[in-house]
């Protein structure tokens, strides 16, 4: 062995520099990877939320910085019949629309879970209401609900002769409310159906085969196999559906703008009307902040749905 080779062989290993050691340190690497996402959340979520909560406790208007007024805006809302009307219709709108979306969505999911011809094409067609932009859907429904040119009134009056006059869908309170609910159900069915269909396909066919061997009926298989196994996904999808429906803005504002006579205002549309066209930013922010308890309730519903999943996996609930 030559002297040069011996020197090379005995040369001590060089230690990596501080930058290499820093990026090899797992806590720093995790922090560096999460920093961009945390920055985006801070700028586009935390700051607007914090600013909205701050404005709710001030008398800020457009063009004038406000002063701290404490709970004055919320005290005013408790005495405002229009706010109570928006709370009632928001809860009513969310409840009826969610029940309708889940009843029809579950039925479609069960139907598409069977072996049908052109099943992939049918799934793509069902997604169309969800893919179409909300404003375009709202304009289409606004045309369908038009008191003079409605296709529904044309069929019932001109073709079938079941009615003598056209239906005024949006001219009075309750017809307008139910018309908006029908439009929301039409838009929400694809999300529920495809999500539940994905859950149905995770259920093992061997469970149904064993139930058939025991002589179970279709209702018993749904009650004791399909529904319990689908419940965790059902809870999560229902939570998102409740949040999306309760905070709906585009559909309602594009079709009725809260009318007639403010009867179809949701909390989101009322907050916008008071805050932007009305100029009362503090009051509009207070209306928006009043939505938070309802959204927290929906989140807690999702948590208990996830706790059910622990039970299914043989783990103890926390």
Automatic annotation (TrEMBL):
* InterPro entries registered for this protein in UniProt: MetI-like, MetI-like_sf
Location in the cell: Cell membrane
Q: Which UniProt keywords apply?
A: Cell membrane, Membrane, Transmembrane, Transmembrane helix, Transport
Gene Ontology biological process terms, A to Z: transmembrane transport
Q: Which SUPFAM superfamilies match?
A: MetI-like
Membrane topology annotation: Multi-pass membrane protein
- The answer to whether UniProt assigns keyword Transmembrane helix to this entry is yes
**In this protein, which residues make up the domain named ABC transmembrane type-1?**
87-304
Q: Which residues form a coiled coil?
A: none
The terms describing its cellular component in GO are: plasma membrane
Q: Where are the bilayer-spanning segments? A: 28-57, 86-112, 124-145, 185-203, 224-246, 285-306
Protein family membership: Belongs to the binding-protein-dependent transport system permease family.
Protein's name in the database: Carbohydrate ABC transporter membrane protein 1, CUT1 family
Where does this protein come from, organism-wise? Belnapia rosea
Recall the taxonomic lineage recorded for the source organism.
Answer: Bacteria, Pseudomonadati, Pseudomonadota, Alphaproteobacteria, Acetobacterales
């Amino acid at each position: 062995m030559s002297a040069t080779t011996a020197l090379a062989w005995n040369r001590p290993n060089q230690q990596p520099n501080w930058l290499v050691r820093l990026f090899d340190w797992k806590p720093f690497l995790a922090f560096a990877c999460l920093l961009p996402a945390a920055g985006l959340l801070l700028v586009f979520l935390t700051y607007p939320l914090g600013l909205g909560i701050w404005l709710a406790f001030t008398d800020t208007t457009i063009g004038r910085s406000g002063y701290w007024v404490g709970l004055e805006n919320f005290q005013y809302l408790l005495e405002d019949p229009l706010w109570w009307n928006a709370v009632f219709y928001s809860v009513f709108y969310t409840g009826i629309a969610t029940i309708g979306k889940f009843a029809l969505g579950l039925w479609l999911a069960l139907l598409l879970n069977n072996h049908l011809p052109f099943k992939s094409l049918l799934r793509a067609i069902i997604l169309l209401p969800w893919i179409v932009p909300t404003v375009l859907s709202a304009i289409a429904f606004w045309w369908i609900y038009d008191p003079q040119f409605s296709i529904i009134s044309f069929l019932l009056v001109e073709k079938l002769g079941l009615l003598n006059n056209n239906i005024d869908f949006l001219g009075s309170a309750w017809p307008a409310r139910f018309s908006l609910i029908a439009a929301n159900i039409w838009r929400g069915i694809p999300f529920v159906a495809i999500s539940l269909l994905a859950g149905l396909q995770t259920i093992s066919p061997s469970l149904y085969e064993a139930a058939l061997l025991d002589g179970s009926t279709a209702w018993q298989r749904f009650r004791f196999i399909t529904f319990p196994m689908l419940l965790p996904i059902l809870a999560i999808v229902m939570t998102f559906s409740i949040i999306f429906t309760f905070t709906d803005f585009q559909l309602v504002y594009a079709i009725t703008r809260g009318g007639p006579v403010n009867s179809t205002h949701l909390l989101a549309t009322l907050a916008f009307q008071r805050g932007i066209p009305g100029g009362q930013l503090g009051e509009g922010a207070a209306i928006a902040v009043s939505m938070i308890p309802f959204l927290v309730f929906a989140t807690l519903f999702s948590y208990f749905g996830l706790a059910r999943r622990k039970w299914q996996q043989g783990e103890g609930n926390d």
